Amino acid sequence: MSVDESNNVHTRLQVHNCVVQPLLTDLYQITMAYAYWKSEKTSDTAVFDLFFRQNPFQGEFTIFGGLEECLRFLENFSYSDSDIEYLKTTLPPTIEQSFFGYLKELTAKDVKLYAIDEGSVVFPRVPLIRVEGPLIVVQLLETTLLTLVNFSSLMATNAARYRMAAGDNVSLLEFGLRRAQGPDGGLSASKYAYIGGFDGTSNLLAGKMFNIPVKGTHAHAYITSFSNPSELKNKTLVNLNNGKEQDLIDLTLSWRTTLSNLLHISESQASDGELAALVSFAIAFPEGFVALIDTYDVNKWHFLGPKELPVISSFGSGILNFCAVALALNDLGYKAIGVRIDSGDLAYLSNKSRETFVKVANEYNIPWFANLTIIASNDINEETIWSLNDQKHSIDCFGIGTHLVTCQRQPALGCVYKLVEVNGTPRIKLSQDGSKITMPGKKDAFRLYGADGFALIDLLKKSVEDPPVAKTKLLCRHPFDQKKRAFVVPSTIKPLYKIYWENGRIMQRLPDLSEVREHVKESLRSLRPDIKRNLNPTPYKVSVSDDLYEFMHELWMRNTPIGELS
């Protein structure tokens, strides 16, 4: 690693969550460590695999997140004096005092960590991380590594699914801090939503810490805090065309009267308090004016039009007042940005809003007005977006909170951390539930690609085996079903693991968030569309080599007790 890369790593690791420390673990990790120590197993070595068993959200892919945070944890892994004092008061008094001295000296310098690149598409049973080192130390890492990977990967996957639902031409903003599971949950959600494909966040601290673009408008409270234009202390704005101050209220009221006839919305139905709020906000942000327009009068019928027939207004007050302010700003040389809709029938209201903008643009020859941004919020989830797509909405940007940051559809990924080798001897965990049987020993993972560039299958091999060779026939077997096997001739092969931690330091350059975000896009592009589709996606196959299959089943038989009938 070059000096520049080393400095890059050092600088990035300064942003470390102080909560992530050795005591962020389960009690039984410490009690096992003492039992290991008491059994004189301090020189034993072990290998653990961190993996998950099932893709989330009824999908067939997962995005790997949290690797950088795991590396930060390793760099800072040591027990402080106060940690030791706390453990002395918490553990049974029979614990030998010299054990605490042993804990005080522990670091991760003898640990090796192999991992798939963060932001990669990953699949069940393929270890995301392989940890090697002293048995006691790598056991103590378990809970913390799991908590760092579980939510990060779940959150990035959830965000990626929203991105696929929305498509590439619609912006996605994360608005979930107030609904997140506490401050750490909110920060993690903002970070991994951005990695998964969101364009920005409302979370200022996340923006500062992770260099994520921050976005926001105003709340209904701002609108309802105003009663009448007469209460505005500041009513003027500099006209960019001549540099003179001009009364924005008078200009807006004039436009509202004119637009009332054009849009068939009664001016008497428009809220003066709302108008005052929008003018006030426009004076504060004339070059970034986005207005929340659903505070009053959503989808209300008005009797105004030819022969007094009832016509439905697109939340009459809000759309009329917004257009009036936007046109007043235009007269002064400013361009409004758009509107936010936070309630009602989002497909219908977005389309009516777009029709209104196009109508105004054509009437007054202001082409950009037709393309004003329409932002939709209001408890949106993945299914909502698919439904809105079917209804041909006109929304340019979704602001998404609760369902995104809490992963309501599936609140946990279910990563596990399993022992697969001790002192060079493979270990296997057996279970009546076949999905919980582990694959023993140290393994390497490879991704096999077809001639079309799409990933065909992931292949696990024993680390002592020769790596697979492209353009040769490879036997790929299902880990547990002897009937499921196939020959694969891959065009290209990608080894999935890199050594990320060794000799107490990071061994790879760590990408920044924008680079991880791009890697997510690239990795998803390597999957066939049928694997990524929302409804009944095709399962992606994970296989083992013939040698690993035979070895695994031999060990399985060797460790399975033989029953006796009598």
UniProtKB/TrEMBL annotation:
Catalysed conversion reaction: 5-phospho-alpha-D-ribose 1-diphosphate + nicotinate + ATP + H2O = nicotinate beta-D-ribonucleotide + ADP + phosphate + diphosphate
Keywords from the UniProt entry: Ligase, Phosphoprotein, Pyridine nucleotide biosynthesis, Transferase
InterPro entries on file: Aldolase_TIM, NAPRTase_C, NAPRTase_N, Nic_PRibTrfase-Fam, Nic_PRibTrfase_pncB, Nicotinate_pribotase-like_C
Pfam families for this protein: NAPRTase_C, NAPRTase_N
Gene Ontology molecular function, alphabetical: nicotinate phosphoribosyltransferase activity; transferase activity
General function of this protein: Catalyzes the first step in the biosynthesis of NAD from nicotinic acid, the ATP-dependent synthesis of beta-nicotinate D-ribonucleotide from nicotinate and 5-phospho-D-ribose 1-phosphate. Helps prevent cellular oxidative stress via its role in NAD biosynthesis.
Name of the protein described by the UniProt record: Nicotinate phosphoribosyltransferase
Organism this protein belongs to: Aphis glycines (Soybean aphid)
